[in-house]
């Protein structure tokens, strides 16, 4: 079940995420980021860790992988807006990127 | 090391792949296919099996995953053309799709 972000929480979360390299598309209400790794192995390792959380949350990213790069788009289709799950996924990606990324 | 496809081999391989749902983009010399699954779990399972072969062959797809769909593009950048590895990857994807896909 998708949970809306309250206005204050949204503002604060987005401020932090944008500081950390996420881009807000406020037409589609998506957040987007490109993660770059040493090689495909690290990029796919990152995707695998994210996939496990995505299954747990029942909330899945839209993402493209080309060799060492992963382009991620997050949004919540049933709300047509960003939700708490998008923020949770984004924070998790940033967190594990520190351990896997270059 | 990328290995070029001889003309006859290329014609035959492409004929078979196109019959199996691959699209040839002859401007970029890529082959493309969308694989559709029951859910994200199956789609990412497919990607994981393909990733292991990609690492073994040192030949990686360009791919986008949105929930239960995986869009794949194959080409060989150092040849700027399709190679034996592209055909091998495409055949492997079609093979395992039979066991995972819907």
Automatic annotation (TrEMBL), chains A, B:
A single MF term (Gene Ontology): 4-alpha-hydroxytetrahydrobiopterin dehydratase activity
InterPro entries: PCD_sf (IPR036428), Pterin_deHydtase (IPR001533)
Presence of the UniProt keyword tRNA-binding in the record: no
EC number: 4.2.1.96
SUPFAM superfamilies found in the cross-reference section: PCD-like (SSF55248)
Catalytic reactions of this protein: (4aS,6R)-4a-hydroxy-L-erythro-5,6,7,8-tetrahydrobiopterin = (6R)-L-erythro-6,7-dihydrobiopterin + H2O
GO biological process: tetrahydrobiopterin biosynthetic process
Keywords associated with the record: Lyase
Superkingdom: Eukaryota
Family: Belongs to the pterin-4-alpha-carbinolamine dehydratase family.
Entries under HAMAP family matching the protein: Pterin_4_alpha
Name assigned to this protein: 4a-hydroxytetrahydrobiopterin dehydratase
Organism annotation: Didymodactylos carnosus
């Amino acid at each position: 079940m998708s949970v809306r972000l309250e206005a204050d929480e949204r503002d604060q979360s987005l401020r932090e995420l944008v500081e950390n390299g996420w881009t807000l598309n406020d037409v589609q209400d998506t957040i987007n980021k490109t993660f770059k790794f040493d090689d495909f192995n690290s990029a796919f390792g990152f995707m695998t860790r994210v996939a496990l959380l995505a299954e747990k949350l029942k909330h899945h990213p839209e993402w493209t992988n080309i060799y060492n790069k992963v382009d991620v788009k997050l949004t919540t289709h049933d709300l047509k807006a960003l939700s708490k799950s998008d923020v949770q996924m984004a924070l998790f990606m940033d967190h594990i990127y520190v351990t896997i990324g270059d």
